[in-house]
Amino acid sequence: xxxxxxxxxxxxxxxxxxxxxxxxxxxxxxxxxxxxxxxxxxxxxxxxxxxxxxxxxxxxxxxxxxxxxxxxxxxxxxxxxxxxxxxxxxxxxxxxxxxxxxxxxxxxxxxxxxxxxxxxxxxxxxxxxxxxxxxxxxxxxxxxxxxxxxxxxxxxxxxxxxxxxxxxxxxxxxxxxxxxxxxxxxxxxxxxxxxxxxxxxxxxxxxxxxxxxxxxxxxxxxxxxxxxxxxxxxxxxxxxxxxxxxxxxxxxxxxxxxxxxxxxxxxxxxxxxxxxxxxxxxxxxxxxxxxxxxxxxxxxxxxxxxxxxxxxxxxxxxxxxxxxxxxxxxxxxxxxxxxxxxxxxxxxxxxxxxxxxxxxxxxxxxxxxxxxxxxxxxxxxxxxxxxxxxxxxxxxxxxxxxxxxxxxxxxxxxxxxxxxxxxxxxxxxxxxxxxxxxxxxxxxxxxxxxxxxxxxxxxxxxxxxxxxxxxxxxxxxxxxxxxxxxxxxxx
Length: 491
Ligand code: ADP
Ligand code: MG
Prior knowledge:
The chain has about 500 residues and is α+β, with helices and mostly antiparallel strands. It has helices spanning about 5, 70-80, 180-195, 235-255, 300-305, 315-320, 325-335, 335-350, 355-370, 380-395, 400-410, 415-420, 430-445, 445-455, 460-470, 475-485; strands at about 10-15, 15-30, 90, 90-95, 105-110, 120-125, 130-140, 145, 155-160, 165-170, 205-215, 225-230, 260-265, 270-275, 285-290, 295. It contains 16 helices and 16 strands. Helix 6 (about 315-320) packs antiparallel against helix 7 and helix 10 (about 380-395) packs antiparallel against helix 11. The longest helix has 20 residues, at about 235-255. The protein starts with a helix and ends with a helix. Mean pLDDT is about 95; it is low at about 1-5. Bound molecules: adenosine-5'-diphosphate and magnesium ion (MG).
């Protein structure tokens, strides 16, 4: 990265530039049908308290039983984060009182997490990449949900989420701007979705982040951080960081100092507000949960999971670049699992990689963006877009007709090849037909012909006229060649 780009990340204060330092604690809900220590279901949107076992409700005498699949999911995620898998880990009780926490403690992992240090490669908006270190990943239970807006006098508690498995993924304080933090969350989300270990759905709360922010003079010692709790959209993460960094700079420059505290993000007013200071911080009295044995497994268990890992975004990008795609195009294609899957389906249907990538990025994704539709819900199947790309590649239609065919399939559905046949959209390659059109246009515009001889770029106007005369179906290469010959343009 150039110095100039690095500098532009600094925020300017009255005493000079300041550097933002960010570390994220991401809570990712494990994709699993059952909870971490009970067999109750985890379906989103179920009726309140319809998915609660005696274990989740902490009835006396109930004992937790570890869900092997959730452990596999955590190991799989650790491997996807290129992290150290710990063959020995311990579940601890984190004690606190809250109405939606019937046990009076959360089972989590403290000193000995299941996954240790790893690394995530992030893709920055300027085309560069950066590395963000992973500190650890541990397994823990989610709490229930208190509901305060249903009754004037009462609060309700929904325990459906109580006991659902979460992976807490803690980054090192390696990010230096809201852009980098956003790129990190996007990449982490993509990796989780490729692995099928978390659905990454932020609206449903399957992925949420605690955002730690501090500021310092560039290259100086780390400043005191504030932790913004439970931010649940990528846009809010960026807004919270920018607001919080500016707030801290203003306080320090006014002669004050930053108190380490927990804050919340108010998305309506786009600001962070204090929740509790360090003095009010909980003493969780962590201790190993006596109901659970330490979690121990063999290297062979890890190796088996490693052998089953799917291709991840970075590796997929490498493969696509090897197929001849520009790095930028490949990055866009692998950035979201649905887009990557769609692209792969186009290749499987016979489209050539470079043409398919151009078509998908420039035409189809553009239309989807404009219409505000996700690719998974888009109206054109991958096989149809592949068919259009193939029709261009074998010369059946030209690029302009291809766009028209896409519009037709988008609006009406149908098979591109049949649409081309039925509506007579085949490209005119027959030179005599094109010649006739070229000659007619030249004969009708003697003044333009004279102008084009002096200014060869004028040929574009003639190409347009001939295309119009042929209903947009002429082969543009043939039109260009003929026009050049007739107008006496040599280069
Ligand atoms: P806890 O929040 O439980 O005290 P840690 O000390 O492990 O936990 O830090 C939590 C998060 O805060 C990590 O993601 C870490 O990268 C980040 N962090 C630590 N120090 C700073 C700092 N000075 N500025 C910004 N983020 C920091
Ligand atoms: Mg924390």
